[in-house]
């Protein structure tokens, strides 16, 4: 795989380490200057990994598309306002991208557990859901994209979910979803030890894009997860 990583922050560095461990050709171009990246800088790329800042996502995607790249992985948060415009840009260019607020496979499955838990505890009025998240001090968005996704999963059971965001130290990410009742508390928690899990998920997304033609536009990471957890031996085919 010939890959370019746009962004040299913690996620960009984790991607560079993971991709460099294989037989991939990797170039890190760093976060964009004020004028944006020149398309020529991103030429001859199989997959572009966007890992810069939310305000630069649309311009970076446009530069990658102008360079001829048709497979992108967007691992940046804080660009919600540009999501529809980026999806349109991709469709016009006949390109596909996978995006996620968090590319950890564990977090993706954690979200599905939260959905199931919300359905169960939402039936009992005594249990009130809440979310606590902790990220490094330098993380800009609060609540994080992951916390917002978890809150949306709880929303059907409790439209107004309390979310507490902690920004301190160097934690790569901890998310706790709780259900509290007068006599007991139930907690689900996922803690990242480092960013290798995020990089592994982003690489799985790149493999998914390269494996076969995908419909132009934006694809959620859940589409990749569905493939990863699919039973390779359906019930009728098991020995």
List keywords for this structure.
Dihydrodipicolinate Reductase, domain 2; elongated; Rossmann fold; 35% helix; 7 helices
Write the SSE topology.
Blueprint: E1 2-6, H1 10-20, E2 25-28, E3 47-50, H2 57-66, E4 71-74, H3 83-92, E5 96-99, H4 105-121, E6 128-135, H5 145-154, E7 162-167, E8 174-181, E9 184-191, H6 196-211, E10 217-220, H7 221-229
Helix pairs in contact: 1-6, 2-3, 4-5
What strand order characterises the main sheet? 2-1-3-4-5-10
Report the total helices: 7
> Would you list the SSEs in sequence order as H and E?
EHEEHEHEHEHEEEHEH
Q: Point out poorly predicted stretches.
A: none
Number of domains: 2
Helix % is 25-40%
Radius of gyration: 19 Å
Question: Could you tell me the number of beta strands?
Answer: 10
Strand content: 15-25%
Q: How can the largest sheet be summarized?
A: 6 strands, parallel
Q: For the residues shown, what is the average pLDDT?
A: 90
CATH architecture heading of the largest domain? 3-Layer(aba) Sandwich
**If you consult CATH, what is the topology of the largest domain?**
Rossmann fold
- Protein structure class: alpha/beta
Looking at this structure, what is the CATH superfamily of the largest domain? NAD(P)-binding Rossmann-like Domain
CATH C-level label of the largest domain = Alpha Beta
Overall shape: it is elongated
N-C termini distance: 36 Å
């Amino acid at each position: 795989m010939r890959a370019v990583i746009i962004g040299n922050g913690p996620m960009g560095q984790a991607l560079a380490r993971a991709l460099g461990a294989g037989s991939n050709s990797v170039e890190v171009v760093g976060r964009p200057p004020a004028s944006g990246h020149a398309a020529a800088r991103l030429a001859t790329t199989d997959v572009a990994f966007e890992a810069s800042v939310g305000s630069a996502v649309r311009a970076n995607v446009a530069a990658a598309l102008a360079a001829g790249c048709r497979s992108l992985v967007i691992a940046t948060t804080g660009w919600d306002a540009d999501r529809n415009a980026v999806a349109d840009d991709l469709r016009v260019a006949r390109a596909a991208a996978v995006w996620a607020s968090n590319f950890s496979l564990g977090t993706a499955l954690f979200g599905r557990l939260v959905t199931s838990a919300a359905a169960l505890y939402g039936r009992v009025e005594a249990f009130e859901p809440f979310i606590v998240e902790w990220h490094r001090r330098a993380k800009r968005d609060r609540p994080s994209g992951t916390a917002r996704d978890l809150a949306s999963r709880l929303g059907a059971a409790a439209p107004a979910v309390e979310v507490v965001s902690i920004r301190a130290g160097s934690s790569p990410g901890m998310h706790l979803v709780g259900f509290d009742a007068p006599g007991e508390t139930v907690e689900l928690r996922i803690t990242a030890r480092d960013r290798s899990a995020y990089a592994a998920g982003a690489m799985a997304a790149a493999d998914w894009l390269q494996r076969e033609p995908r419909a132009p536009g934006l694809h959620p990471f859940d589409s990749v997860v569905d493939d990863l957890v699919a039973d390779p031996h359906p019930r009728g085919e098991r020995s």
